[in-house]
Amino acid sequence: MKHIHHVIENLMAGRPEACHLAKALAKQARATHRRMARARAVGFEAYETTLTDLLLTELAHVDPRFWRVVRFKPHEERGNGADWEWWIQRSDLSWVRLWIQAKRLYHPGERYEELKRKVRRGSDGRIWQSRLLVEAARREGRNGSVLPVPLYAFYNCLQGKRAEPWPCKRLEPCQQQPLLGITIAPAQQIDELIVKGKNGYRDVLAESKPLSCLVHCPTVWSGHPQDSYASTLLMGMEWLHTNDVLPSAPSLPGRIEEALETDDEVVAEESDPRIALITGHAALPGARMDEVPPGLADLRERFDLRALEQQGWRETT
Ligand SMILES: [Zn+2]
Hints:
It contains 13 helices and 8 strands. It has a 6-stranded mixed sheet with strand order 1-2-3-6-7-8, sandwiched between helices. Strands 4-5 form a two-stranded antiparallel sheet. The protein is an alpha+beta fold. It has one domain. The site of zinc ion has 7 residues, from helix 8.
């Protein structure tokens, strides 16, 4: 795994903040893959909602100076087809709004079974959830709010070497399935796949990018060394949308700023990046995504994935 970090560091030379983010996103992809693999190894499948909760918790902690993560409540998801909203700040200080629906890969069929889910829309009967997401985003944009960008995040767990083309040229030297633990795609493209009846791993992968690619792969940022890493991620999002400029709002909606300022439950320790929410100061250097608490590192050793593989746990490949 050190190898991946080394490759990313070389790719991001001279951009330490973006490098840190690329590694943080790659780490979340590997963590998601590991959670799914370990659940399966003991005979059950991790729920999509559980994986989402863990991912969002970590994303929200990366650094709240430049983004906000808002998890939708179930009744909100029924209305807009999205699991969460991600506000990300551009270098011009405006905010881009993303709406994301997550789906996990099922085994042994290697399909995103839940992609073909139909949901109720008012009195019009049932429609694909992907269509609901795309249409609800458009409607929201017409209602005077900034247009949310609808996306899919996919949680994947496959083992071993695969015949599929590797979706990231820059990480070709370290092709490892855990890096594909989280992939992301524009909802419009996924909706078109579903209309054609396609929900298989290969079909979806062809439309997707590994999450960390959005930071380490676009080449457009090379001329903007002063941008925040959040704006690097946004350039990646635009790259995913064939370089369309994503709409943005001049400021965050009051409900989001307010929730952060009045939430007494937020208890920030000295090294907690959330302290930036309260004080407006930069996150302190002690808060790094790379650190693994000693207890967790110990657990990871005891349940080493390689050891599981050697015990013949790779039967799904
Ligand atoms: Zn890439």
